[in-house]
Amino acid sequence: MQIVWQEDAPATVKDVLAQLHREKPLAYTTVMTVLDNLHRKGHLTRRRRGRAYEYSAARSREAHHARLMNEALDESADRSGTLLKFVGQMSPEELADLRRMLETGESSREPETR
Amino acid sequence: MNPGLIAPLLITYAGCAGVLGHRLLTSARWTSRAPGLAVVLWQAIGTSMLLATAAAGLALALPAELLVHGVADFLNACLHTLRERSSTTAGALTVSAGLLLTMSVLARAAWGVASELLRARRCRGRQLADLRIACRRDDLMNAYVLDDKRTLAYCLPGRHRAVVITTAARTALTSSELTAVLQHERAHLRWRHDLVLSSAAGLRRAFPFLPALASAERACRALVEMMADDGAARRSGRRTVASALLRMASGDSPPFALAANGDGSAQRVYRMLDSPARLGVVRRTGTGLVAAALVLGPLAATATPALAAASGHCAFL
């Protein structure tokens, strides 16, 4: 997918293969199968150009990433524990207070917990 | 002890365990000092309530003396007793009520947990497939990179596992903070926190009318974050984890607005900066024993009349 997005123009199996070949040697049939699978899953659209197909991305990379971000930030994903975010939200007051504590090296907030 | 008392006693116990356990644990201060132990205790409470109710049903349907016989005779004895007791209307009702209680409670719990596990697995599988297609994978960090101006890091735990981090987060964090974040996420994966959360969520889904189970799920969610913080702090240091948390929570360029109120995340930073003393050996062992007692207790209660009958049996022999 990265290559198809990079090209920004319809690409044939040969085009993709040429790009990938720089990184690792792959068979023509392998690349063809992968592109075909991506097409079947709806990530690529294709058009016949002569004897070969030309593949284009169905959705832009930005759209994909935006959707993934939305899913990750979605409240229900958070509540249901499907994914575990590193940290949630803090109020401006909390942030200010904690930053100050971190900078001054203060280590005790509630003395009674010690 | 009158065997007729066992069932109502067990049900009362289940209720008390729920109410008391929930109240004690929710207000306990020591849980942030030993989050792993707290998780075990929460799960023990839920399990205890479940086992006690199931055992109550069994106690209603079958007299415990049956447990004295060998396994081979057990089924015969059960059927015989059931037929015998069912010969009177009162007996039949008691038997059916008891069996129904046990079976429905256990089945419901199993359904809750299983459906939770399946749902989570399906969601995560789909997300991982999307990630694989759309994102670059950074081999050094062993994580997928999401292109976004907002700082975000998360993990997909369980079978379809992954760690994801945004480009903004990677630039904003210092290298030691980045390591801490990745260590935190990896701790979730390593210690299978998805199983902890799925079982808590599953029990809650099965019995949504029990506030103790809702508290348990909420508490476990916060506690596993503390456990992962501890895991990262062990290697990167508490201050690094604290500053990583702050940097990630600050978000980044608009439209990521700061929340008016925090959601409890600040407590984690306070905890990292506070460095509370670890719970002493005595308290830790004691708590562990309480958890064990909670789970084994209901089972023992059903078995005691059998043991008494067995000793009577032996004395006779």
Please characterize this protein's 3D structure.
The complex is a heterodimer of chains A (114) and B (317). By secondary structure, chain A is an alpha+beta fold. Chain A is 53% helix and 12% strand. In chain A, α2 packs across α3 (28-40). Chain A is elongated. The relative contact order of chain A is 0.10. Chain B has 317 residues and is mostly helical. A four-stranded mixed beta sheet of chain B has the order 1-2-4-3, sandwiched between helices. The chains are: A alpha+beta (114), B mainly alpha (317). Chains A and B meet through α4, β3 and α6 of A and α4, β3, α6, α7 and α8 of B.
Question: How are the SSEs ordered, and which strands pair?
Answer:
The complex is a heterodimer of chains A (114) and B (317).
Chain A: H1 2-7, H2 13-21, H3 28-40, E1 44-49, E2 52-57, H4 61-73, H5 75-80, E3 84-85, H6 92-104
Antiparallel strand pairs in A: 1-2
Helix pairs in contact in A: 2-3
Chain B: H1 6-27, H2 35-61, H3 71-85, H4 89-134, E1 136-138, E2 143-146, E3 153-156, E4 162-166, H5 167-172, H6 175-190, H7 193-206, H8 211-236, H9 238-249, H10 265-274, H11 281-316
Parallel strand pairs in B: 2-4
Antiparallel strand pairs in B: 1-2, 3-4
